[in-house]
Design a protein that fits this description.
The strands form 2 sheets. The chain has a 9-stranded mixed sheet, with helices on both faces. Strands 1-2 form a two-stranded antiparallel sheet. α4 (112-119) runs parallel beside α10. A hairpin with a 7-residue loop joins β3 (69-72) and β4. Mean pLDDT is 91; it is low at 1-26. It has helices spanning 2-6, 9-14, 88-91, 112-119, 167-170, 176-189, 213-221, 249-260, 279-288, 314-329, 332-335, 344-347; strands at 40-41, 47-48, 69-72, 80-85, 94-100, 124-128, 201-211, 227-233, 266-270, 294-299, 351-356. By secondary structure, the protein is of the alpha/beta class. The longest helix has 16 residues, at 314-329. It has one domain (2-146, 164-356): 3-Layer(aba) Sandwich (Rossmann fold), CATH 3.40.50.1820.
Length: 359
């Protein structure tokens, strides 16, 4: 694996003028204000909102949590990349979280910074997608068009980029079966005496999450009885036409059917109406869910890009880590982010919070 990454280190070297963001040795991400996005570009001219992170081999332990984590693959799980604490013995029993990328981009290292941070808090995290080109490891790059009253019309799509080394992964889409296979694999590893995870996983504590298109995959997976908590990040199921997006009755019926399968505590996070194309879907999803605990929050000034490419995944990684620590580890300190009228996000004036079946 080291040799593979070393062969493409030139990509990051060429990005030197973009600005470097360190992943390690960072203090805990603040909840506000929303991040100021940079204006750098990669070699193909795409924006790099948080700058290109420094190059690290996959076996370099990173993350601000108590158990710095590494990135790995396994021949028995060819359509996923996974993240886990480097010191498995120190980390103790690990809950399992499966992830779907924004755009359903089939590169398991696409959200490397964010997923490494989550794993560093004591989780086995598995992302749909094969090990992609290292240039993909900057997270979401372009904020989708959002309909704004009296705003400009939707721009024409950008033409394909010639000689784009990331194209094979961008054109291949992950699906819900990849996420389900990741759970199957992890559960099997726990009873495989030859696996590094033998007896080290809490197979009764399984979560799922995803950003944008990956949030849609999470909703499709939500009926899996093994799940104990889910996260829908900068995503949501649109059930009505509003905010410049039309929804047919057939689409709404399919959306309601999928949401009816949700049986676990659910967190929904988005940016604001004018910057995040998922704002309406997040509201529709919260409004529809009625039988499970739901925490819904959106932040003023936050884009659809979120903070996934920021150092240690930024504020969304902090919120997501606390969500899974609370529901998969029973961590009551982490619950303070969400529980009670004085929850940490409730106190942050840039975040707007709604809850159901909680507190």
């Amino acid at each position: 694996m080291k040799a593979r990454f070393a062969s493409i280190i030139f990509v990051l070297t060429a990005f030197a003028g973009v600005g470097v963001m360190a992943q390690s040795s960072q203090s805990q991400a603040p909840l506000s204000p929303p991040p100021m996005l940079g204006t750098g570009e990669d070699l193909q001219g795409r924006p790099v909102p948080f700058g290109v992170p420094p190059y690290f081999t996959a076996d370099t332990a990173l993350g601000s949590g108590p158990y710095p984590a590494v990135m790995a693959t396994d021949p028995g799980l060819p359509e996923n990349v996974f993240y886990h604490p480097a010191d498995l013995e120190a980390a103790g029993e690990l809950p399992i979280v499966v992830w779907g990328n924004g755009g359903c981009v089939h590169a398991g290292n696409r959200f490397r910074v964010f997923l490494t941070e989550l794993a560093s808090h004591g989780f086995l995290v598995l992302s749909a997608g094969t090990m992609g080109h290292v240039a993909l490891e900057v997270g979401p790059q372009e904020n989708p068009w959002v309909s704004v009253p009296d705003g400009p019309p939707r721009p024409p799509p950008s033409p394909p980029i010639e000689n784009d080394p990331t194209a094979p992964w961008r054109s291949t889409r992950s699906n819900v079966d990849h996420m389900r296979a990741a759970i199957d694999w992890a559960v099997a590893q726990n009873t495989n005496a030859e696996s590094a995870f033998y007896g080290r996983l809490d197979t009764e504590a399984v979560g799922a999450g995803g950003q944008s298109c990956g949030g849609g995959l999470t909703t499709r997976l939500a009926g899996d009885e093994r799940l104990k908590a889910i996260g829908i990040f900068n995503s949501g199921t649109r059930l009505q036409s509003r905010f410049g997006r039309d929804v047919t009755e057939e689409q709404a019926a399919t959306g309601r059917e999928r949401l009816d399968a949700v049986h676990t505590p659910t967190v929904i996070l988005t940016g604001d109406r004018y910057l995040d194309s998922a704002y309406g879907g997040g509201h529709d999803t919260f409004d529809y869910l009625s039988d499970v605990p739901v925490f819904h929050a959106w932040q003023e000034g936050l884009t659809h890009i979120g903070t996934y490419g920021a150092p240690n995944g930024g504020s969304i990684a902090r919120i997501a880590s606390d969500w899974y620590k609370w529901h998969l580890k029973g961590d009551q300190q982490a619950a303070r982010m969400f529980a009670g009228d004085d929850c940490l996000l409730c106190q942050d004036t840039t975040w707007h919070v709604q809850k159901k079946n909680m507190d």
